[in-house]
Write a structure and sequence with these properties.
Blueprint (H helix, E strand, L loop, with lengths): L8 H8 L7 E6 L7 E7 L2 E7 L9 H13 L17 E3 L2 E7 L11 H17 L13 H11 L1 H4 L6 H15 L6 E4 L8 E4 L2 E5 L6 E4 H12 L9 H14 L4 H28 L12 H10 L15
Antiparallel strand pairs: 1-2, 2-3, 3-5, 4-5, 6-9, 7-8
Length: about 325
């Protein structure tokens, strides 16, 4: 979330007039994130989130994202719900951008999650996977192995090496390794694909909901869990916290037990997830102009995660089936 497109109060008031949400009282931009423009909008009926979709989000994908949020909410998952306007549409236009108005989710994201939060997130991720099973629309993962290769080819070894000497060669070797060993026999479904701490809200240590479904797609569900191992279970010094890993995995399996193939593939999936975010962060790092309001994340954070996964022998190295 960020503010790339400025809108006026009169523009927002006209936009809201097409919805049964009362009158505009106030609004402000939301500065966090990197993908879309977001505003907190207060009306006489309560707070809402207004999202303007920027260039990195394909317009053809928006029906999938918005339809998925509606589907998940109907099936018991706590997440923002797109509102439909007076014409019955959940997608409209504002400032020459596709735009949607969604319900506001109370809560805050955790800067320092504890193992108990990881357990709750594991349960929530499994519930998302089960709730998504009846969703008919499909969206391939644009940031799977073929997408990684495309990102790498676009940047090239020399440009990546401007971030860190030798990084381009390291990524190329990892791409070749993972392409050769990537599993194709895992159970697939709808995945969130970006369930970082800032996309999970808590209230008084209880989960209040999941947000930001704009990377959601169809892929291996265990890969989604591997993304969470990367996002939730490393400390600031990039050491893996096995207690958090244990809690995340146990929480997930409380709702949806992993198959033998999924447990066997976890170190490979975790490597792939680390490489995915290393590559996208390299792209952002190299493409963000100096002085931009949005500061890109350091891609080397994911190089250190990747180096840990390269040493993992099996899922027990992530805390699976450990008992305390």
């Amino acid at each position: 979330m960020a503010v790339y497109t400025e809108v006026s109060d009169s523009d927002i008031a006209r936009f809201l007039s097409d919805y049964d949400v009362g009158e505009l009282q106030s609004f402000r931009g939301i500065a966090e994130g990197v993908e879309n423009t977001n505003y907190m909008v207060h009306t006489t009926t309560g707070p809402l989130i207004l999202t303007l979709y920027e260039k990195r989000v394909s317009g053809g994908d928006l029906p999938f994202f918005l339809g998925l949020m509606e589907h998940l909410a109907k099936n018991g998952l706590s997440c923002p719900v797109p509102l439909r306007n007076k014409h019955g549409d959940n997608l409209s236009t504002l400032a020459n951008r596709s735009a949607a108005l969604v319900t506001f989710l109370e809560g805050f994201w955790l800067r320092a999650p504890a193992p108990r939060h990881c357990r709750i997130v594991g349960e929530a991720l499994a519930k998302l996977h089960l709730a998504g099973s009846g969703f008919d629309m499909k969206r391939p993962n644009a940031l799977g192995p073929q997408g990684w290769q495309s990102l790498f080819d676009t940047l090239g070894v020399d440009q990546i090496n401007t971030i860190k000497d030798g990084l381009g060669e390291t990524i190329l070797a990892e791409l070749e390794t993972l392409h050769a060993m990537w599993p194709d026999d895992l159970e697939t479904g709808v995945i969130h694909a970006d369930l970082f701490p800032d996309n999970v809200f808590f209230l008084d240590d209880d989960l209040s909901g999941l947000i930001d479904f704009y990377f959601a797609c169809n892929d291996a569900m265990a890969y989604d869990l591997a993304i969470c191992l990367n996002a939730w279970c490393f400390e600031q010094d990039f050491s893996f916290n096995i207690t958090k890993g244990q809690a995340l995995l146990n929480g997930y399996e409380k709702v949806r037990p992993l198959s033998q193939n999924e447990t066997a593939a976890m170190p490979t999936l975790a490597r792939g997830a680390a490489l995915r975010f290393l590559l996208t962060r390299c792209t952002d790092w190299l493409s963000t102009p100096p002085g931009a309001l949005v500061k890109p994340h350091n891609p080397l954070d994911y190089l250190q995660r990747l180096q840990f996964h390269q040493t993992a022998k099996n899922i027990r190295d992530y805390g699976h089936n450990l008992r305390t």
